[in-house]
Amino acid sequence: MSPFVLSQLLAAVGAVFGIVSFQLRERRNVLLCLTVLSCLNASHFLVLGRTTPAILLLLTATQFVTALLSRHWCFVVFYLAAAAVAIGLSYQGLPSWLAFAAFCCGTIGSFQHSDRVLRQCFCAGNIFWIVHNIIVGSPVAILIELAFLTSNLIGYWRLYGRAAPAATPAGSQGDSPDP
């Protein structure tokens, strides 16, 4: 099996965890699935010889585990600083900055108390990863991030986007007032 095929296979297996994660409601389960995804995607980028995203994704996996245990903002600062150091050590041009931006979105989202804000931050991170993957030429990673973004948006809409039925005041015939 060629390294390219292996990298795409690792990314595809990780995709299953990513797609499932955004359909889960509990923050803990979302972060557990994303931990597995991050490890598989880090392996994907290592096989492709892309050290910056691989380092950032391994850092992301540890960050998700940390976020499961604590949501303290000192960890956000720690992980953002660690990512900045990783960028400095493995800089590869524009893709490094895009990976860093995606990492920042995910880091900030991971430590949120609100599942809704977590999902919003991850959507922004997905967009940065999509552009990154276009530039580095990983077709499966592009499709996977598009699937993650779509799954996240569907999950967000399913959990938060539907308007709750308006309560009908006692004695009314069910007509709701104009907004």
Structure write-up:
- With 179 residues, the protein is an all-alpha fold.
- The protein has seven helices and no strands.
- It has helices at 3-21, 27-47, 51-69, 73-90, 94-110, 115-136, 139-161.
- The chain starts with a helix and ends in an 18-residue tail after the last helix.
Helix content range: over 70%
Write down the overall geometry. globular
Computed CA radius of gyration, to the nearest angstrom: 19 Å
Q: Give the tally of β-strands.
A: 0
Low-confidence parts lasting 5 or more residues at pLDDT below 50?
Answer: 167-179
Q: What is the mean pLDDT?
A: 87
Straight-line distance between termini: 60 Å
Largest sheet: none
Structural class: mainly alpha
Strand content of the residues, in percent? under 5%
Count of DSSP H/I helices: 7
Order of helices and strands: HHHHHHH
Brief overview:
With 179 residues, the chain is mainly α. Helix content is 78%, strand content 0%.
Defining key terms:
179 residues, disordered C terminus, 78% helix, globular, single chain
Strand and helix map with partners:
Blueprint lengths: L2 H19 L5 H21 L3 H19 L3 H18 L3 H17 L4 H22 L2 H23 L18
Helix pairs in contact: 1-2, 1-7, 2-3, 3-4, 3-5, 4-5, 5-6, 6-7
